[in-house]
Amino acid sequence: EEIIPILCVGEDKTKRQENLQLQVIMEELKMAMKNLSMEEQKKVIIAYEPIWSIGTGIIPTNNQIEEVINAIKKLYPENQVLYGGSANEENIDELKKISCIDGYLIGGLSLKPEKLKIFLEKLGFKAYNTGCPTIWGLTPDLCAKISNTKSTSVVFTLTSYQPDQIRDKAM
User: Fold this and answer.
1) Please, which residues have CB within 8 angstroms of residue 14's CB and are 6 or more apart in sequence?
2) Disulfide: which of 25, 125, 127, 138 matches 117 by Cβ 3.0-4.6 Å?
3) HSE on the CB side for 115, CA within 13 Å?
4) Tens digit of each residue's pLDDT (9 = 90 or more) over 38-67
5) d(C-alpha 99, C-alpha 43), whole Å
6) 3-class secondary-structure state, position 59
């Protein structure tokens, strides 16, 4: 099987405060995709992950997320677009209200099995902790096998950066 790339795009806190997030994200997308054929571009999963939100527990408003994801989908209508940036068991009920989100990219939550279980259950997955540290990736095809639905993807990532290091780089 081929590896499907996930392209993370997002603005820092200053660009958000200056209302330049769409300009930044569109430039990031164009630069990342410029050497890919149209067929290759369609295979890329795009994740909107505001840099200032990573590991902070603070997320944009639903309207702000929707604005960015709809702009991405307008430019790349064939691509799946995920939301990342402090998605967790406490805010997933609110995030689920945003219909344009195709799935979620989570990092730190994947290291907290009990909270991850709650997150997944709120998305309709049957989740359990195997007791084995792992990286999970639930793609639409795997979701269909697990829950007979293709409505949501969840991608789990592990990073060598601690949230404070990422936050310091973003500010």
Assistant:
1) none
2) 127
3) 14
4) 999 999 999 999 999 988 888 999 999 999
5) 21
6) coil
